[in-house]
Amino acid sequence: HPMSLFAPAKVSDRTDGKIAHLDGLNFSRAWCWRALAAQLGEHPVSARAREAAQRHLEASLPHVAGDYMGEHWLATFALLALEA
Known about the structure:
60% helix
């Protein structure tokens, strides 16, 4: 369902290398939402895109460090999302 793109993925077990990829998905989505918002400029939808990006960042930024399954690569995706 397209509306699911507005909600961050829920990571049930960050010690599981496969499930930990959902934090990466959140950063990837945040990156895309921020890039879309920048291109939309003053369009009313831009605010929704920025809000979605922020929700995705807030869901995963606290978990960039703390478990090797994510910390050895998540920072790269977090940086891309923050600089978009």
